[in-house]
Amino acid sequence: MSRPFLKMNGLGNDFVVVEARTAPFDPTAAEVRAIADRTTGVGCDQLVAIQPPDAEADGVDARVRFWNADGEEVSACGNATRCVGWLLMQSSGKDAVVLETKAGRLYASRAGERLVSVDMGEPRLDWAQIPLAAEHDTRALDVKLFDHPALDAAPGCVSMGNPHVVFFVPDIATAPVTEAGPVVERHPLFPEQVNVGFAQVIDRDRIRLRVWERGAGLTKACGTGACAAFVAAARRDLVDRAATLELDGGELLIELRDDGHVIMTGPAAVDFAGELK
Question: Is residue 127 part of a domain?
Fold first, then answer.
């Protein structure tokens, strides 16, 4: 049976979004990989399913599931959350929606024409929350993950519902993103693998960022990665309470509220509609 989908993107980080509130959708890893394949499938960084909320989940508009292109289900995806939030607000006429994910509840609200803000919650900073395989200072790891002169020796670790490690680099143009990314992603320190960020702090309100996503590779943008890079920089007093994150696909505004919640604001776009056979 065919199933409608929307191809969407947030700053070029692209998704196949499936409506699953009226019919169950539980793809196998092989099916996810087939859909995500850019040669023989639709092609995407992540597959996303919008499901009905759990019966006991008061105030929740939808449950959302995410799979990386390698078939692995993951807990969170910031850019996809903005896209789903925009879809649900368009269909309901609301200015804010609540989404249930494996990473917890996320709150999306209108921030302008095709702009969405998402309350990503509080970052998780303890080594066991990220998680790491052993106890370490997550502000500045004392483990050599990849030996390269363009990388700092002590990257920071943050979980935004999924694990991130952030290297601070003097010049993003010389950062070994495609060399270090796949090696660090699978380093034994990270039992669930890890998203790998390479951040150049340009000013206290601006960071240039590239991200190697676990299970997807180098992407044009990573919402949770932008949040993680900002938090890692804030922990070292490199930024103020808000900063613009420059990614390959465009810009995101990341803010740290007084209650410790991280707010991400950026665009959502629809590319085309189709049907999965």
Answer: no
Catalytic residue selected from 44, 77, 83, 227 = 77
Q: Is residue 133 part of a domain?
A: no
Q: Is 83 a catalytic residue?
A: no
pLDDT tens readout for residues 204-256: 999 999 999 999 999 999 999 999 999 999 999 999 999 999 999 999 999 99
As given in the structure block, the two tokens for residue 157 are 């670790």
Residue 128 and residue 194: Cα distance in Å, rounded?
14
- Strands 46-51 and 96-101, sheet pairing: unpaired
Q: Are residues 34 and 103 in the same domain?
A: yes
Residue 122: other Cβ atoms inside 10 A:
15
Residue-level pLDDT at 1: 55
CA distance 240 to 253: 12
pLDDT tens-digit profile of 73-104? 999 899 999 999 999 999 999 999 999 999 99
Burial class from Cβ neighbours inside 10 Å (0-12, 13-18, 19+) for residue 203 reads exposed
**Total domains in the fold of the chain:** 2
Is residue 260 assigned to a domain? Answer: no
Is residue 44 flagged as an active site residue?
no
Query: Residue 192 burial (CB < 10 Å; 0-12/13-18/19+)?
Result: middle
Catalytic residue, chosen from 44, 83, 157, 222, is 222
* 130: its two tokens: 């990220």
What is the token pair recorded at 126? 């303890």
pTM of the predicted model, to two decimals? 0.94
Question: Under 8 Å CB-to-CB from 207, ≥6 apart: which residues?
Answer: 199, 200, 201, 229, 230, 233, 239, 243, 244, 245, 246
